[in-house]
Amino acid sequence: MTHKVKIYLGIAAIIVAVILLLIGSLGSSKNSSEIIEGELKTEEGVLRHPLNGTVITEDDFDFFPIAIAIDNAYTVRPQSGLKQADIIYEALVESNITRLLAIFDSEDSINEIGPVRSARNYFMDWAEEYGGLYMHVGGSPQALAIINDYNFTNVDQIGAGEIYFWRDSDLPMPHNVFTSSANWLRAGELKEVADINRQLIWNFVKPAETDQTPPDFGLDFKDSGYRVEWQYSQALDAYKRCQGEEKFLYNTGEQVTAENVIVQVVESELIDSEHRQMETKENGPVFIFNSLGRQEGQWKFIDGRTRFFDADNQELKLVPGQTWVEIIDDVDKLTFEFKE
Questions:
Q1: What does the pLDDT look like over 7-46, one tens digit per residue?
Q2: For a tag on the chain, would you pick the N or C end, based on fewer CB atoms within 10 A?
Q3: Within a domain: 77
């Protein structure tokens, strides 16, 4: 073999090595992307917002979640700030009334949110699934006894956290405490709250045509004034909310709507003469209503998160937008009959 041939073969070997190195690098990048996509539950390379399922970019994950206890008494409606919430829980508290837990993205700009009310154990359980801030005004004795054990940053208006709230002197106590996005940003910065965990996401999918007609349905809480009805609007591709046989309104005057309504059946019992306890970390029946129709299955608490599965253990589907999670303690309280 001549010296020139050896040189050519050496050059060829170097070229082949470089090509293999580049291929390996590209393969590594592809695998890394796939892993990231798996964690974020993306669809066809699309990243989705962990709270509302809308399409986002990598830069849009620079936020933390906020959970706020919101009043739902007759006299305080319409509440402030609900329209901008990504997720809203509704569950019974004492006196057979319901209360709300609203979950927000810290990047939202909202001048007034409330009235803010007190903490309960089971609302704290749901708030912990998101991390970030939990904002409230005091709480039940059972809640306050264990609140520091939870994995969120506790911001209580009673005490040092008062600086993150204000009272409206024109409204009666205790229905007059409010907060804002400026306050939660201030709290988040001073308390060094971490950005959202990217794995915290439900199975949001792109809306698709279906042969199913999404049904109207109602929820019977113990007081008739808190009976909720959700009526599907084909024009909006969303459910419209009524409560106590009246339209349930945002403070903007618009009727409340939701792209998804999750009805979660949770065991509940009284733990004293007033306060309830709910079993939030086991499993039970669940129903999901959205433009895809009606889905049924089981909710399960897995790795610190409530998730929803069908009979084949496939995750039920949500569409992008706002989600209401309705908590009931008996499947018979979900009804499909309405008064004429």
A1: 444 545 545 444 444 434 333 333 322 333 445 555 567 8
A2: C
A3: yes
Q: What is the CATH number of the domain that holds 107?
A: 3.50.90.10
Q: Tell me, yes or no, whether 262 lies in a domain.
A: yes
Q: Are 106 and 60 in contact (CB under 8 A)?
A: no
Give the structural domain span for 1. Answer: 1-40
Q: Which amino acid is at 107?
A: E
67 and 131 in a single domain? The answer is yes
Task: Report the DSSP beta bridge partners of residue 218.
Answer: 229, 335
Sign of CA dihedral 256, 261, 263, 268: negative
E runs forming strands in 121-259: 133-136, 153-156, 166-167, 177-178, 217-219, 228-233, 238-243, 246-247, 257-258
- Could you tell me if 93 and 4 lie in one domain? no
Compute CA 185 distance to the chain's CA centroid, rounded to the nearest angstrom. Answer: 19
pTM of model > 0.85: yes
Q: Rounded distance, CA 61 to CA 337, Å?
A: 42
What are the tens digits of pLDDT across the range 228-239?
Answer: 999 999 999 999
Decide if 241 is inside a domain.
yes
One domain for residues 90 and 165: yes
Instruction: Write b or e for each residue in 214-227: b if 16 or more Cβ atoms lie within 10 A of its Cβ, otherwise e.
Output: bebbbbebeeeebb
- Of 73-77, 125-129, 233-237, 315-319, which gets the smallest average pLDDT? 73-77
